[in-house]
Amino acid sequence: GQQLNQSPQSMFIQEGEDVSMNCTSSSIFNTWLWYKQDPGEGPVLLIALYKAGELTSNGRLTAQFGITRKDSFLNISASIPSDVGIYFCAGLNSGYALNFGKGTSLLVTP
Amino acid sequence: DADVTQTPRNRITKTGKRIMLECSQTKGHDRMYWYRQDPGLGLRLIYYSFDVKDINKGEISDGYSVSRQAQAKFSLSLESAIPNQTALYFCATQGDLGAQHFGDGTRLSIL
Which of A51, A70, A98, B106 pairs with B79 at a CA distance of 20 to 30 A? Predict the structure, then answer.
């Protein structure tokens, strides 16, 4: 599959801070997805983006589908301890296979 | 109840044993997937199936086999387990818009 570059690899922040992470690719995608994985559980879909330039929110989370279709970012506002986990981006072309980033590990201190 | 259910959740076994991991779903999706997750390597695709009669290899299929018994059931087998197959295994389904929905995983340890 195509390599997605997800950054940062890890973040250590204080409760209340805003968080930003991004994902870039050398290839274009038709769909961008953001997942969160808690320890001992499977990835859970947070936000799905289907159109270049699209900006979508889910509570304190906001994600955007880059206009070039080669990138996407996820912002978390006013972080709380339960935001701790690993966040994955995934891109999808026509077809089936998701291409995953390697994840951003987020730690939030009270 | 979970939409995608994996059993067992944890398994410890010995080298050379045959292992089967099971996945069932209530989402009504035709497409199902098996991934393994290793620290630092993210999710890697093992096998996928678009319907009961369609099975395809992913990027790391060697040492694994699958069976799609019904639309709702997709099992993964390790014919002769080896220690480097120790990993977290996930089953997922895929809806029409492309988003995949994951089970809670099976933690497999091979001694």
Answer: A98
Does the structure show a pLDDT above 80 at B50?
yes
**The pLDDT of residue A31:** 94
The yes-or-no verdict on residue B65 having pLDDT over 60 is yes
Q: Which residue pairs, CB below 8 angstroms and at least 24 apart, start in A47-55?
A: A47/A74, A48/B97, A48/B98, A48/B99, A50/B97
Backbone dihedral region for residue B76 (phi beyond 0: left; psi -120 to 50: alpha; all else: beta): beta
Give the DSSP letter of residue A59.
Answer: T
Q: Evaluate if residue B71 carries a pLDDT over 70.
A: yes
- Comparing alpha-carbon positions, the chain B residue that sits nearest to A48 is B99
What tens digit of pLDDT does each residue of A30-65 get? 999 999 999 888 999 999 999 999 999 999 999 999
Cβ distance A102 to B48 less than 8 Å, yes or no, reads no
- Which chain B residues are within 8 Å of A96, Cβ to Cβ? 31, 48, 50, 94
Taking the C-alpha atoms of residue B73 and residue B67, their distance in angstroms, rounded to an integer, is: 8
Closest chain A residue by Cα to residue B33: A97
Please count the residues of chain B. Answer: 111
Contact pairs from chain A to chain B, CB under 8 Å:
52
